[in-house]
Amino acid sequence: MAVLTQILGWFGTLLILFAYFLVSFKKIDVHSRQFQLMNLIGALTLGVHVYYQKSWPALFLEIVWGGIALISLCKKS
Whole-model pTM above 0.85? Predict the structure, then answer.
């Protein structure tokens, strides 16, 4: 289980960073569904890892991060 959560954590981290890179270099718009989906999926997968590690401050961050992305996605519907 530890290896799986590590993989999920790294995937989430890289996805969030990649989303930030794409927005910073104007490859996607900050208000796009793609950006918000990358943030949501990244927060969920990284959240699994930090939950497993019992890193409560980081888990709180991922819950808020994912919640913001989810609210933004719902507003676009």
Answer: yes
Widest distance between CA atoms in the chain? 37
| Rounded distance between C-alpha atoms, residue 43 and residue 17, angstroms | 11
Amino acid at 23: V
Amino acid at the residue 34: Q
Token pair in block for residue 40: 């949501």
pLDDT one-digit tens code per residue, 25-71: 999 999 999 999 999 999 999 999 999 999 999 999 999 999 999 99
Task: List, as one string, the DSSP characters of the chain.
Answer: -HHHHHHHHHHHHHHHHHHHHHHHTTSS-TTSHHHHHHHHHHHHHHHHHHHHTT-HHHHHHHHHHHHHHHHHHHHH-
